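DATA SHEET
Item: assembly model
Revision: 1
Owner: S.N.
Input lines:
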Amino acid sequence: MSTTTPAVIDPRRERLVALGRRAAIRLGGGVLVLWAVATLTFFALRLMPGDPVLAILGGPSANPTPEAIEAARVEFGLDKPLAVQYLFYLGRLLQGDLGVSYSQHLPVTRVLVEQGGATLELTIAALALAWLLVLLLTVVTAGRGRVVGGIASLAETLSAALPHFWLGVVLLAVFAFGLRWFPPAGSDSVASLVLPAFSLAIPLAGFIAQVTRESLELTLEQPFVLTARTRGLSDLAVRFRHALRHALLPGVSLSGWAIGALISGAVVCEVIFSRKGIGRQLYQAVQAQDMPLVIGISLVVAAGYVLANILVDLLYQWIDPRQQEAAA
Amino acid sequence: MTDLTLDRTLAPLRRQRQWKLPPVGASLAILFLSALLLAALAPGLFTRIDPLAIVPRDAFQPPSWAHWLGTDQSGRDIFARIIHGARQSLLIGVAATAIAMAIAITLGLLSGLGGARVDRALGWLLEVLFAFPSLVLALLFVAVFGSGVGPLIVATGLGGAPGYARMVRGQVLAVRNAGYIEAARALGHPTSRIVLRQLLPNAMRPLLVTLTMGVGQAIVWASALSFLGLGARPPAPEWGTMLSMGRDFIANAWWLTFFPGLFIVLTTLATTVTGRYLQQRLEGRLP
Amino acid sequence: MSDKTLIVEGLNVAFAGRSVVRDLSFTLLPGRCVALVGESGSGKSVSARSLVGLAGAKAQVSARQLSFAGHDLLDLSERQWREVRGKDIGFVLQDALVSLDPLRPVGKEVLEVLQTHQYGDRQSRAARVHELLERVGVPDVELRARQRPGQLSGGLRQRALIASALALDPALVIADEPTTALDATVQAQILEVFQQIKARGASLLIISHDLAVVAQLADDVVVLRHGEVVEQGPMQQVLSQPRHPYTRALLAAVPAEHPRGSRLSPERAGVHREARARVHSDVLLEGRGLGKRYLGPDGLARQVVQGVDFTLRAGRTLGIVGESGSGKTTLARIALGLLQPDQGEVLYRGQPWNRPANAVSEAVRRPLRREISVIYQDPLGSFDPRWSVAQILDDALQVAGIEAAARPARIAVLLGQVRLPADLAQRRPLQLSGGQRQRVAIARAIASEPKVIICDEPVSALDVSVQAQVLDLLADLQDELGLAYLFISHDLGVIRHVSDDVLVMRHGQVVEQAAVEQLFERPAHAYTQRLLGAVPRLPGSGAALVVPPLDLEHEAFHLFDETRLWKIAI
């Protein structure tokens, strides 16, 4: 009989092994994705109308001499065939060299390092704040009847519908210019982080809360929650100890996407609040047609996003290892 | 994350647990959207004032009888600009969503029906698209193709496509494994008939809701890009552009930014509420 | 000293004014067992939950008296209820797969009760968990306690669920359908666990729809119907000499007790077709050496079906019985030609019907499909969600080659044949009851005038009385239309009632094959004997329950759900 019956393995070790395996696969996939991204951006760069050399030399208003143009062309390797340029490009990427910004005449990596911290700060703060709002709003109010649920739902829908750029402007007007509680610009203090973080967090919180609330209400009707109640657990204990873990799962899934949305939002917020950050750099780079900077920032953002998604995926796996099981 | 959970998260409210959408809310939403559509098609019905007319002496008028929502820094009537801007916004929203859906349905169908290898290859392609946060993708696009309404629409559409594609794929897979597809096969229906008559319609149904809400989302996106100056350029009456223009005057003339933003919010709300209402009506028939 | 007696007098439960339980009264003495019996909608579950205050926030519960061990259970505050739950009264729900937190190890679930009621200290709690799991018969306690419900077989996780209810030695244990989701052999083992609970002096309140299960444990039986007590008394009396017509109908509907050819439902009682003589009719569907192999998610290969032969003759019923993991559902799909075998072949009327590696193309099969139909366990899932009954039947008629003009008339005829009113055609399946839906599925199956119908657990999800009606319908149709049935079920009683010949499957293989009476009266294989011994019977039927020992190999096999790996080609 060629049937093999699976041996009973230690569940804890099994879980770690499964996680490790998944992490390895995802990382490998991530590298492939990044390669594709790099290739796409390279060719996007080449598709751009206009001569990059002119952009390097100061834009259409400057009037460079033919010698200067030729010199710049050779210096930036733009006279070689496309395939060679591509290989050079990949080679430099692997060494961490993202080229030199046309408009700032600084290495792109330097720009990223100087500006990246502020954006990271903003993104993480916004995500944390959003989750805080979500937990406060949903766990306490889910499944408590139509009126409470209705009001909370309304709040969530409304928040999710607020465009973050408009919210930013309004918050700026009310709290910075109006009440003068917070500075209208700057990236150094915690106070300057508050308004931008809120304008990003509120719409995101609304969105995640909707999903989490629905999930929580569904979970609270499950038989295992009833079992927990039959053991004498209080309602709050049931919510936190049992239902929450299940209800969070859709929200965790969404968080991967959410990080991308936050990065996009950071671009706008940094402009509105005049904050330091690679979002604003990207915006200015696009206006100046500074391709190395645009590409460099896009690549780094993509890499960060891919990494964040892998982390979220692993987190999900850790909370809910069930995908590997064949449920009888 | 499994596609099943992503599918679940991107299509909220499958049950009627949520606040029972009172017909009042849905009716208001539908009314608003209809009015908006009307404004887009025939702005003359709502206002006679030229949105581009510059009247310097009327600059910075607060809301009044003459100018319902006030005037901007060049004396242009804000209400008129919003009405005329509706056309732009709806156009962008609908067109971008259409593009996104077209891409998504193609990719999603191929993924769901094509077999494991095709699914994996397309999944990887989607991941690559996904790797760019939407705004970054849009900025890249604009950097390459320049600003303007055309690139704006395509950029927004491209940004939304991967998310929808995942949903379509999830739906197709779910329906493909459903009992009634197997039953149809057991009855003796040919494959083409099963796919066209049963699989596709059932898979696409829930997406109607997503489409509706997606239009609202697309409008917001387009406004964000315009806000950054990458879409419709001033003095075009596009809502995002208006918001951007009014930013400098927010301390003294709040109505320049408030009202365009309000309309964006109301449009998004309306599409969301309508979408939910549609969903609940659909769900009433689904098991 | 108040002894631990449960007194229920005049219990009424209503939801938003609509009465769900009316005037329920019974007394449960320590060490005894009372069973609440009824079909869906009888109010039995609601009553049980009211006894621990968990009928729901919208429930209006009232009674003349409701007390346990002298403590009044009426109008308790939530805080007072929390003292009672888990400590004085333990509750066991059905299907531990969903009744235990799927994300937590079962040991933690048991521990939770101890923590909530502040039992001892850390060490004594751990020891207690260990002791409890051993008491309910879980092997390898250290290992199993760290596993999640999804990693345990049905029987083991049900035991863990029971252990968590017993943690503080409650004097009263309420069990709501505790064995419904389990295989026959496992069910017998769990019933034994409950016997032990009773033997230790606790009182048991069992909720069940299964009269035979109730007969194993109950001292007194209360029969409920639409929220009202229809009959109650000592078990022997209620189940052997029932007084109320409803109880009699329930007992009459149990298939195991009724020979082949008789009818089960009250509408058809008295009809008795003579057992058909063993006519050697034509062989319609034949399987030879069938095998199917799957690669599980953990990379291990499993032979889900192995070396299976079967023969189905015209006008006769071949019953295929097996527990979960036996491969019977996969076999049904192979017989239907929806899944390809890896070894062996299926022949229909002597011609190749299904062979490995796509040797028989769908184009060859398609025209013959009208002769082989199928009925599923879940009819609702097999209907296109958008369609009405008329559209479902119209679709089936279309593929059977009936022209559009003739179809409406045929639909009416079909509905009549399955004894559904013609105006049902405009309704949608969601609006129909479980029994009606299955009839629509049967109507669809006979629309193409087939010769063979493959029935995959067609009555497993139905109430007993509805089950009786559907089985009668199938029997009538077989007589009227000369159909052959390939009938798959886990329920031995049903198989005995419907089959002419029976195949017993275990772990993908056929362990025994015989004519029905021979198999049930003189089973040859040890597994068959074990299986038959484990099925509970009503009093007066003779055999007492023989509890098979824990079969760990079976437990491991059990975890594998073959249906998840199917990909029916479309």
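QC remark: The longest helix of chain A spans residues 235-272.
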